[in-house]
Structures
1.
Amino acid sequence: MIRSKYLKFLIPLALIVICVYWYYSSIVISGTSENRMWKVTYSKNIDPSEPTGWEGHLTQKNNDNVTVKAIVVEENDKINTSIDSFVEGRAEDGEITVLHPFSADFHLGPKPSKGTVVSVVWEQDDKTHTDIVKIR
């Protein structure tokens, strides 16, 4: 008797958790660089008051003092987006850019394909580095 009461509670709860996970995983795609310094997240814009599409966001995962020189997005070996100028603050469209640790939006458009590669060109101690983030 008690067991059936628990099952009546646990089965709907498990279904709700599965549905929430499925919904969230269908509107967010991400990838991390090999050195775990950079994370790229694409999220589907579901706010009806804003433009529709997928928004890309680059985040620095550590607190090292680096200068990002460029973000290059390639899909199917073709450059889709290239940004090489970053100004800290809030833009007119509401995008917020933070330089240390780095955090910026870089894309609003169609859903990225599985072959999307984001290159982050950054500089530290007068040495230039390039990290690759593959979108899954």
Note: The chain has one helix and ten strands.
2.
Amino acid sequence: MAANLEVHNLMTVDDFMAFKDDDFKHLQQDVASLKHESMHYNDEISGLKSDVQLLKGSVTELQVDVRYLKRDVSDLKQDVQELKLDMAEVKVGLKTIVADMRFFKWLIGVSVALPSIIWMVQQLCRLIGCPID
């Protein structure tokens, strides 16, 4: 039975040590590569953290701007209400002016017609025999 026994892949100690040294070198290269990648990722993370800080600052500025805009909108709404009241007063004033203009138009009409009316009354009075001078 011993004669039928086949030996596969028998390594010598030197072969094993060479394999282990080679394997160790590959592991060292992998570790160096991982360290390099880790530094690269750490740089990216630092950049992202910096970007996040900038974005936080921008968000804070935008929140302040929104507060100012809300206050401005509130002020504008108040201004619009005041303008509506002013416009109502102007409308009343314009109606008063129009009424006054109608009165003055009538008054001017009367004052233009008054000399003619006086002349006609004088003529009538002369006709009936009571002259007015």
Note: The chain has a mean pLDDT of 87.
3.
Amino acid sequence: MQLIDVAITNSALVTPSPAAEKWIKPLIKLTFPLIKNKSFAKLQAKTLYVGQEYFEQYYEDSSKMKVDTLIKILQENMSFAIPRDFSKAQCNILVTVGEKEKVNMKKSALHLVNSNLNCQGVMLSNIGHGVSLANPEFFNRFVEEWLIDGKLPEGKIIK
């Protein structure tokens, strides 16, 4: 008996970037005041596919964030690597990434797919980072279809 039967990873960054990681602290300290600027927050929310109906909550929450918290979050994000025993995972794993995401995200998806024989990967067309927010109906439908029927979402197969 295994603990997990299926898993989905969407837009996972698994290629550590030590060079970028060392610049996070000084850059965030320099740019942190922008977090309280509503115009900047609107641009950021748009990039993250935060809908207008959620913007005020997004702005309120991000405005409360402390600089050290944001630095820790970004450092953790930039330092994550595929676990040593990931290749031994026996469940079916769907790996997705948006076609409009940055190159390092696409490389991470490819690295995940090539690190476990049970991984299937799909690059989702016309989407950046945040498919579950950008198009929740599509996201929920493809997750359900994959879970129930094993059907891959529309997009380019990652090999």
Note: The radius of gyration is 17 Å.
4.
Amino acid sequence: MSAHQAIICQEAVLDDGRERLHNHGMTNGVEAAWRKILTAAGEPRRPEASPLFAPFSELVLAAHSEPLLRQLHPWTGMWELHFSRCTEIRYTWDVHYIGTLGDGRYYIEGPSRTSPRIAEADSAQAAVAMVIDRLPSRCGPAFIGTAEELDAYERPRNGR
């Protein structure tokens, strides 16, 4: 599928008096971010690698296998897998995230860093299912831009 076929829709959005195109749909940026994370997860495990490497790799594969998560922009840190509704930093913090525990299990937290732990799961698939069950209703293909630009795009559509 070409990049043009992957785009779901285009809309012109006024941004400080300038017209700016935003593609609301799967983007090469989302696909590239997933590829980068999948490549790192698939690298041969070095003996000195963290014990969290194998469960984290399993988590990345499980999340990528789910179409609802695959359309979001993934990012990682501290053995956690996060999902953003936009493609550029500052990412959104309205989707729960999954972290790896030392015993090969997983935790689900969020959507913000200050939110309490939602649950723990014995498998990557169970953790991914918990995140999918908690996706925001407006969650769809990642928006090309920052969280602030996404908010400006959604504000008139949500009657705010």
Note: The first strand starts at residue 9 and ends at 15.
